[in-house]
Amino acid sequence: MSRLLGSVRARATLGATLVVAVALVAAGTAVLLSLRSNLLGEAGTQAERSAREVATELAVGTPYGDLSLDVDDRPVQIVDEDGTLVAASEDLERISGTSVGAVQPQPQPHPTATGDQDGDDSGDEGGDADDDSGEPLEPGEIGERTTVSDGSATIDGDPEDYRFAAVPVETPEQGRLTVWAGAPLSAEHGAVNTALTVMLIGFPLLLAVVGWVTWMVTGRALRPVEGIRREMAAITASEDLARRVPVPGTHDEVARLASTTNETLSALEASVDRQRRFVADASHELRSPIASLRTQLEVAAAHPELLDLDGAVEDTVRLQRLAADLLLLARLDAGERPADARVDLAALAREEAGGRAGVSVRAGGAGDVTVAGSRGQLGRVLANLLDNAQRHARSAVEVSVRRDGDLAVLAVADDGEGVPAADRERIFERFVRLDAARSRDDGGAGLGLAIARDVAVRHGGTLTVHDAPAGGALFELRLPGAA
Predict the structure, then answer these.
(1) Which of 57, 87, 123, 421 has minimal CB crowding within 10 Å?
(2) Smallest Cα–Cα separation from 374: which of 338, 344, 330?
(3) What is the DSSP string of 19-68?
(4) 426-457 pLDDT tens trace
(5) Which residues have a Cβ under 8 Å from the Cβ of 394 and sit 6 or more positions away?
(6) In what order do the strands lie in the sheet with 462-467?
């Protein structure tokens, strides 16, 4: 069960079904209450109409025996001011919900002339008679206010629920009377029960349809996701980064997910390829000085007089530099953040150029050209650029420092042959040497410019190569100026 609910498809289906269920229950309850209220109101209207018909007959002096009390087999009671039942439907056997529970009327004798006079005197003393709600009525007048209540009655052995309406009437001879008439609630009960039955049968069916449709739609929408998952699992198992996940033609979020996944796989494949080439090139570069050093040591062990000490030291230095370059590249690839120190580029240029033959530094009008970063890494950049320029220059190398707006610019120019336009990005790749005639003993391992570009990027700057005014190469390092 927990595994099933862990599925997005199952959770979406369950959520949609619950939402629709809550909405159906709320709507069904509102419909039932509204239907019951309307039917009760209609029953109350019918009961009031029946009561007013009988009250109209009483208002014109119709005797009790001539009243229409058995029309439509509805219960009717007539109660006097003392609460005595004076008339009722003929077949009424039991009643509840009215002011009087009696079903056998107790008619009162007609008042005598003295009684009439007494009644008139009483009326003169007390004014017009009032009903229970305080409404004044004249003889022959029917009250406007109606009292409504719910109850039950048994007529001719048939028990049923009714809505009763009470209407007051002032009669010329009997005084104040109250007519109670009932309207059956069977229609209300039947309609409510029918509606409830339909809801109890229809709602589960509707919920089943909603759940099934949601399950199918969700499954169709998630089918491409499952295809992406299976392909990713296959890629993981086979370690074949050249494979790609299928991209659906729906142009929706799933399609964008598949495209992004393929872009990630492409970047990962390129990164792994670079890592493999880096390891292969590093192994190749390390093999030469190690093999040379081993050969010299083996010869020296057998023939001490043939020991080439200078060559051994040179190979050791080359090996040390290569190891340092590889270590720095590894730290840069790992995302090492440079230090946040203030570095004066003009002072750094003079320091790195000092002692190098044919290298001049020009910082005229530069002012305070400072940047934030690692002095050691920036010094390594300048040293690599100077080493590269001296290897290719015919006679001179010039270092210039200036400010260009918010940027600090350090340029290294030589008067050599320059860099072809097609190779101006390739030279910044690792282990790349454009001069095929140059041996490893005369140059480096092809890591200097790659390290310089990586350090520049880590410092938020750029390193590019252009044509120098003297015809050689111009390497330009641009860094954000220190605040």
Answers:
(1) 421
(2) 338
(3) HHHHHHHHHHHHHHHHHHHHHHHHHHHHHHHHHHHHHHHHHTT--GGGS-
(4) 888 877 766 543 444 445 667 889 889 999 99
(5) 414, 415, 416, 472
(6) 359-362, 397-404, 407-414, 473-480, 462-467
User: Are residues 307 and 416 located together in one domain of the fold?
Assistant: no
Element of type H or E holding 450: helix 448-458
- The DSSP letter of residue 308 is -
Same domain, 235 and 263: no
Q: Which two tokens stand for residue 219?
A: 């499954």
184 bridge partner residues: 162
**Which residues neighbour 300 within 8 Å (Cβ) at sequence distance 6 or greater?**
306, 307, 308, 312
Residue where a domain terminates, one of 240, 266, 282: 240
Over the stretch 365-417, which tens digit does the pLDDT of each residue have?
556 789 999 998 999 899 899 988 988 888 889 999 998 888 999 999 998 88
Quick one: DSSP state of residue 136?
A: B
Q: What is the extent of the structural domain holding 299?
A: 253-333
In 3D, which of 274, 290, 277 has the Cα closest to residue 323? 290
